[in-house]
Amino acid sequence: MIVVEGLHKSFGAIKAADGVSFRAEDGRITGLLGPNGAGKSTTLRILYTVLKPDDGTAMIDSVDVVADSLAARRLIGTLPHGSGLYPHLTARENIVYYARLYGMDREIIDEHVQRIIDQLDIGAFADRRSKGFSQGQRTRVSLARALVHGPRNVILDEPSNGLDVMATRSLRELIRLLKSQGKCVLFSSHVMQEVAALCDEIIIIAAGRVVLHDTPDGIRNATDCDDLEEAFVRAIQHVSAAE
Amino acid sequence: MSPISVVIRKEITDNFRDRRTLLSALLMGPLFGPILFAFVINLSLQQQLGNEGEALDLPVIGREHAPALVDYLTSQNINVTDAPENREAAVEGVRSGRHDVVVIISASFGEDLSRSVAATVEVVTDQSNTTAERESRRALRALAAYNQELAAIRLSARGVSPQVLRPLNIDLVDVSTPSGRSAMLLGMLSYFFLFALLTGGMNLAIDATAGERERGSLEPLLCLPVERDQLIFGKILAACFFMALSCLLSLTSFAIVLKFLPLEQLGMTPNFGPDVVLFAVLLLLPFTLLGASLMTLVASFTRSYKEAQTWVGAVLLAPTLPILIVSILQVRPSTELMLIPSLSQHLLLVGMIKNEPVDMLHVVVSVIGTLVAGVFAAWLCARLYRREGLLG
Description:
The complex is a heterodimer.
Chain A: E1 2-11, E2 14-24, E3 29-33, H1 40-47, E4 55-60, E5 63-64, H2 69-74, E6 76-79, H3 91-101, H4 106-119, H5 135-147, E7 153-157, H6 165-180, E8 184-189, H7 192-198, E9 201-206, E10 209-214, H8 216-223, H9 228-242
Parallel strand pairs in A: 3-8, 3-9, 6-7, 7-8
Antiparallel strand pairs in A: 1-2, 1-4, 4-5, 9-10
Chain B: H1 3-16, H2 19-48, E1 56-61, H3 67-75, E2 78-81, H4 87-96, E3 101-105, H5 109-114, E4 121-125, H6 130-157, H7 178-215, H8 218-222, H9 228-260, H10 274-299, H11 305-317, H12 320-329, H13 343-353, H14 360-386
Parallel strand pairs in B: 1-2, 1-3
Antiparallel strand pairs in B: 3-4
């Protein structure tokens, strides 16, 4: 479970996060939706501890990401935006490298790596160097290495970027699989359809603030729109008008 | 396994598969130096020994005015050959490089000699041309000897001993050892080693920050439950490994190449056996930490791989600076100088190669001084790696 309260983060004069608060439950898929520059990545980066908030708290399974960032990092699997692999290593070696850095026991690494390779359907290219991988293959391997230690919480920053239709579909299946395993999945996107198709909860972020947080149906009701996209646009315009 | 050793192992595997690293670490440094060196040695061999034994073809204008001089030149292994018609043609010929040196004997040569007036002999040459300089030196030497001989004959004819013209008897006693003479040329060896060492780890150092950031593999790496210090130290140590490897290969290839170079002909017998190679490795090892950290430090300020390459290239030249300054100032090794990395290694290595006794205090100061500088640079890297701006 991920709980965020009153996160503030500024870069110079730009307020990237301006009091972001929300809660992402276990066994549910929570989508962070917003236009480019709304503060999605900043919020997620604070959660996976590469940025420190100016103010506010964020807890992963009740571990504070600032006070005990190492412990918090152990509890999450992270797929940052535009994740890259090591081109000279095979898919399997990329995953094993992360497993070792997660501090997993030697004896269980091979077994766990093989399990995640099977689960994410990487087997066919597991022992090829990742240099020539397609974007879809790369995303799978990046996800596999983020999940190899079996984290309870999964944070994905724009995971479907650059994926073709088939790859996007299989990514959705994977995210549903994670949900069925009872994990807390938090992912960001600026693509409405994707969020609509996948999420149990939608958090709309604009100008560094949470504008709406509800189920897809709840959002449709709240904005009086059947079309989620329309709802999204209205919610954002509302914020822009208030600025 | 600790995270540091996980990182080191991964970087070593990764880079052994990277053609760029292999090229620079295992080929460029170790081969480039010896080949360049062999080339330079051969060139200077040609220059110094050249055709000293061979006859020199010397165009002389006005040879008919001084048959005795021509005979003398011939006896000195100089072939007097056909010359350009006049002075202008000779100057033009030398300027254009057709002739290296042309001697002009004045028309009044014979007359002047018989009247005991100084007879004019002109030597036309281009002093900025090194080959011409050697030839003209030979011609001048022969003319000077002839001059002396004539003077002696004149004095004898007047009943004066030629010795009166030599109040001083100057003897040059050269005490330099053959190894010592080689030091000039071998002085540049130490820079080759430092160069090979630094190029060996260059790619890794760039990869640690600029490379990983560009590839997008830095952010996920920082999400792992590992202290950033451990990541950066692992990377620096892996770079040290490649630097040490490259340096060792370079030393070995030099030790082999030097065996085949005709250095004795240049009066050099450098001391470069296996024991010196081993000593040099031990001496240069501490420098790997400084080199790797410095390169990582410089690379972490840059935004892309390409930009990093440019700046890190400057680090390759940094070790030359102290070496250059000291060779111009001709400073003797002292304990204080041993505190300066790259310079201390240079001075100690040159001493070794010259077969001079090694001052153990100097070695200790060099090793500790360089290590301290390296640790400081590594600490700075770790600090930089900890800041948020790292992700760019």
